[in-house]
Every structure is written in C-alpha cells, then in structure tokens.
Amino acid sequence: MKESFKAARVAENIYWVGAIDWNLRNFHGYITPRGSTYNSYLIVDEKIALIDTAKAPFASELTSRISSVVDPAKIDYVISNHVEMDHSGSLAAIRAAAPNAEFIADKRAAEDINRHFKANWNFKVVKTGDEISLGKRSLTFVEVPMVHWPDSMVTYCPEEKILFSNDAFGQHMASHERFDDKCLWEDVRGEAAKYYANIVMPLAAPATKALDAVSKLDIKMIAPSHGIIWRKNIADIVSCYKDWAANKTCKKAVVVYDTMWNSTEKMARAIAEGLESGGVETKFFCLRTSDVSEIIKEVLDAKAVIVGSPTLNNGMLPTVAGFLTYMKGLKPRGRLGFAFGSFGWGGGAIQAVEAELKAAGVELALPAIAYKYIPDAGEIAECFNAGHAIAGAI
Ligand code: FEO
Fold first, then answer.
1. Over 60: is that where the pLDDT of 1 sits?
2. Is the CB of 231 under 6 A from ligand 1?
3. How far apart are CA 305 and CA 108, in angstroms?
4. Is 172 among the residues known to form the active site?
5. CATH code of domain 250-393
6. 266: Cβ below 6 Å to ligand 1?
7. Cα-based distances in Å from 189 to 129, 171, 337
8. Is residue 191 lining ligand 1, measured as CB closer than 6 Å?
9. How far is the CA of 195 from the centre of ligand 1 (A)?
10. What CATH fold (topology level) applies to the domain 8-245?
11. Residue 167 bears catalytic tag
C-alpha cells in the first residue's frame, strides 16, 4: 500500500520531509518520553538536494514525504551532515530511490558511512567553506567536529539564511508542529536544554568553536535534525547554547539518592531543607522513580550535585552507580558536592559514591556524611547544616 505522508513547507521550495518517531523512549540511554523526529530537508531548485535522512525503519516515511513534492529519482544531491544512523540510516534506501544522486559529506563521514554500510559509495567530499550551487540557491558547509561526532557538519543556505544544524539546537520531541512560533518557548527550550545536557554537555569546547563559526553567519532560521525548527527564538536559543557551552550555573542544587529503609531518604530531605534555607533552588530526585536524563537536565545549570546511597553488599545501590556512571560520561565541570548515606554494618557505599563524584569532576566541598541505621535528631540536624553550608558555598 502506498503511504501518504506529506512534506511540510519550510520556505519557498524548501520542505521538511523527515519522520516522526512517536514511540522512541530511549536514545542510547537518553530517556525520551516525548519521542523524537528525524528531520530531513528537501530543496527544490534547478538542482534538487536532500539534507540528511532518517533512521532506517523510517525510510518509507521519508520517501513518501519526498514523493509528495517530487519524484525521489530526480534528487541530484544527498548531503549527510552526520554519520549517526538516526540521520544516515536511510541512505541505502535513498540511494535505491535516487540512483543518480551525488552523495556529499565531509571526509570522515564519507569514510564512516561506507564503513557502516560495508559499501564503496562514491562521495563528493567537502570541507569547511566549500560550496555547491543548486541554481538560485547555494549550500555551504561548515565542519563542526564532535558536535556530535568527529564527522559532524552543518549546511548553510545563504540566499535563504537557513542553517541546517543537524544535532545542534535539536530536541527529542515528536510533534506535528514544525516551528517554534507554534509552540511554547519554555517547552521547546526545556527539551533543547535536556538534549544539550544529555548529548552535547561533554563536548563544550567543540560546541563553543562551532558556535563561533556559526555566529559569523546571517541566520533567519535554524533547522535542526531533531524536533522543532527555530525561526522566532533564534537569538534566545543561541544565547542559551552559549551559556550552556560556557558551563554557566546558577544558585541551584540537585540532591540525588536512592534509599533502602528510608534512612538515606531522611538524610536527603534534611540536606534539601538546609539548601533551601540558604536560598538555593533545590531539585530532589529519588533514583527509584526518576529517570537519569531528567536529572542531568537539572544538573546542566546547577552549581551543586549531592549524591546519597545506602550500603548494599559493601557498595552503593545499582541505581546510584548507574546515575554516577552516566554523569561521569557527561563531564559536568565546576560542580560542588558531597556524598551521604546510611549503612547497617560494614559500610562501603559512601567511599564508592565519593570516588565516583571525584571521577566525574565534582569538587567534594564537605566530608561525606554516613550514619548507622536510622539517623537521630542530632544527625538530621547535621544533614540540614551540611545543606546550609553548601548553600553558603554556592
Ligand atoms: Fe541525532 Fe548524533 O545523532
């Protein structure tokens, strides 16, 4: 049966022809309760160009949307801004549908796409500053290595002032809306922040370089490869990216813990009360009921990260270990924190939490707090005071 997906107009003769993944719930460990989109863009000029594709299972949705505008066989250029298979997964299907199209990518992407597909496709290899003409319009390329992979690149159309930014400025957010002026700024900004925290945060230095390169361009639209297209809040989202890449934090703390018989939870609550009493906005997460991607979004602009675990089998609870491993990979810089938790006899969780906090680059601003069995009133007061002390240090 012929599918009936339609393209969405982005500008005169420029179309969104991507796919909507309503059911995506986990993107390599990033929990995505709102799904995502794989945005592809079709430019119809004297030459026809397709910018990025979609995950392989969405190839027929992509070709159906292209077919609502032109016969895919007429595509002249297929541009791959990034190897990762959420954007390049449909290349084989597109190659079959557009056998005369020239594939374009930077050197690294060309090599790695061929490696992935076990192919020997003949790419036109481009680098920063190279340009192709489509007729009335042209496309120029800017390599942005490590935003998100070494092969990453963005494509710019100077005549339309559109930046096809691939992963940068994206959000994992399935939607029938395509543009930010049809959505609430805070909503899309929140998803962009979550995306940055979970994907781009460890790549702050290359992101800063990419922002410098992009800031030289005159932009009236940022068309990322995930989520909503920016055409209203461009200056605002670029400013957010600059803040995030500069690791700007605010008077905010995140308390993260899991608990066995509620002793560690009692300590967590007292610490949070102490932080609040010091005028610090405090986010509070039990790892048994919270997903790590949402917590990392809050770590993005928090100055302090305080982590607690009871002892289980001489170590920390697996939920806490999982969170700390995830955070360590995302490398938040310049955070303060300390470890806390209860134990029954041998202990061991606190040392393990402290070691992982240190490995994640968190400065241990206070000695760890560990209590045997249930904390008494004096010990709860000590937890409150520790929270208050961290508030003073923020
Ligand atoms: Fe959206 Fe790095 O792929």
1. no
2. no
3. 37
4. no
5. 3.40.50.360
6. no
7. 30, 9, 27
8. no
9. 10
10. Metallo-beta-lactamase; Chain A (3.60.15)
11. yes
pTM over 0.90, yes/no: yes
Q: Which residues of 358-387 are buried (b: 16+ CB within 10 A; e: fewer)?
A: eebebeebbebbbbeeebeeebbebbbbbb
Which ligand 1 atom lies nearest to the CA of residue 170?
Answer: 1
Q: Which of 86, 160, 258, 356 is flagged as catalytic? A: 86
> Is the Cβ atom of 87 under 6 angstroms away from ligand 1?
yes
Residue nearest to atom 3 of ligand 1 (CA): 84
Query: Whose Cα sits closest to atom 1 in ligand 1?
Result: 167
Q: Are 262 and 292 in contact (CB under 8 A)?
A: no
Q: Domain ranges in the chain?
A: 8-245, 250-393
Q: Ligand 1 mean position to 86 CA, how many Å?
A: 6
Q: Are the C-beta atoms of 220 and 212 separated by less than 8 Å?
A: no
Q: Is 236 an active-site residue?
A: no
368 CB-side CA count, 13 A: 24
pLDDT (tens digit, 9 = 90+) per residue, 108-157?
999 999 999 999 999 999 999 999 999 999 999 999 988 889 999 999 99
Q: List CB contacts of 184: < 8 A, sequence separation 6 or more.
A: none
Tell me, in angstroms, the distance from the centre of ligand 1 to residue 124's CA.
Answer: 22
Map tokens 């962009």 to a residue. Answer: 192
For 72-93, write each residue's pLDDT tens digit: 999 999 999 999 999 999 999 9
> First-to-last CA distance in the chain?
61
Report strand pairing: 102-106 vs 77-79: parallel
Q: How remote is the CA of residue 389 from the centroid of ligand 1, in Å?
A: 40
Active site residue 38: no
d(CA 358, CA 338): 9
Catalytically annotated residue among 15, 21, 45, 148: 148
pLDDT of 292 strictly over 70: yes
Pull the structure tokens for residue 164: 């096809």
At 178-208, the pLDDT tens digits run 999 999 999 999 999 999 999 999 988 888 8
pLDDT tens for each residue of 323-374: 999 999 999 999 999 999 999 998 999 999 999 999 999 999 999 999 999 9
